[in-house]
Write a structure and sequence with these properties.
Shape: elongated
Distance between the termini: 20 Å
Number of strands: 8
Radius of gyration: 18 Å
Order of helices and strands: EHHHEHHEEHEEHEEH
Length: 193
Amino acid sequence: NKFPQDRVFVYLEENFHRTLLEFINKWKFKEFNRQFFDDSLNWNTFKQWKNRKHFMPLWFIVKLSEKFPEFSIENFEKNIVAMKGPSASGVINNPELPLKEDGRLIRIIAHLIGDGSVGGGFGSNFPKGKQHSEYRNFNFGLLDSFERDLSVFGEVPTTTCYKHGHVVIPNLIGYILEHIYKIKFDCFNSRVP
């Protein structure tokens, strides 16, 4: 998995989630935590994941896929129904996984390098003052094209404002692209690796 494991949170298909938790329930929490996670899991947080009240962090999914071959990363990818970034990040429904590097993705990267910025929330390494991610342009056709190309990620929530010339996107997209391509997306520091 190429995504930043500490920035991506996933929501699993209900039946797959149930199967996974039934498998995990073979162990008592303390034993499971000690044996597979070096006592790094918090019981209250785990209960939220277990009851499908919160998205699970990608690092947890990756670790499970490494420990239990029957839950391969490919199997998880087929059963992720939504993903988001930390905190109150916008949710991408029906994500297209694995992420395909095609013309849409390349155009998104080019647009973000030229006229975009990637923000970040609490706990990120992004500069202060960057609260959201966006693509800015006053060409309505380019705004529409950018918004359509986001389908490479799945059903992406956006806010488009033609008057101010921007499309606001979930920070998760920026986290993923910066992690995979090692690019900083802002007008003064963007560089192709």
